[in-house]
Amino acid sequence: MVIFVIPLKRQRELKKNKMLPKFLLADNSQENPDKIYVVHTEAPRFIAESDVEDFYSNQKIHWIDEEPADEDFIGELIDEAADFLDHEFESQIDLYDEENNPEEE
């Protein structure tokens, strides 16, 4: 697995220019085909590693920045990551359906 760490100063520049989304999706299909990674790019930055089929199954959080002390805040961040992943999967399904079942005019 390759992890790209963006220095905080550069991250602030990218955020200011809105070049970097709040979440990124990553995989490592060569070595861990059953895992998916959701990268949170805003402080506190982290990578949520989980099973592809169930975001909360075998989940590991890899903190890039210092882990927050507030467990409720961590829970909110993880829920946001789960919502992002769900939305991305739904978008992929919709895109696949559109490509394979074009509407007839």
Description:
The protein has one domain (8-99). The chain is α+β, with helices and mostly antiparallel strands and 105 residues long. The longest helix is centred in the last third of the chain and has 30 residues, at 71-100. Strands 1-2-3-4 form a 4-stranded antiparallel beta sheet, covered by helices on one side. 37% of the residues lie in helices and 24% in strands. The protein is globular and about 50 Å long. A hairpin with a 3-residue loop joins strand 1 (23-28) and strand 2. It contains 2 helices and 4 strands; from the N terminus they run H-E-E-E-E-H. The N and C termini lie far apart (46 Å). The protein has helices spanning 8-16, 71-100; strands at 23-28, 32-40, 46-51, 60-63. The model has no long low-confidence stretch (mean pLDDT 85).
Features of this protein?
105 residues; 2 helices; 37% helix; alpha+beta; four-stranded antiparallel beta sheet
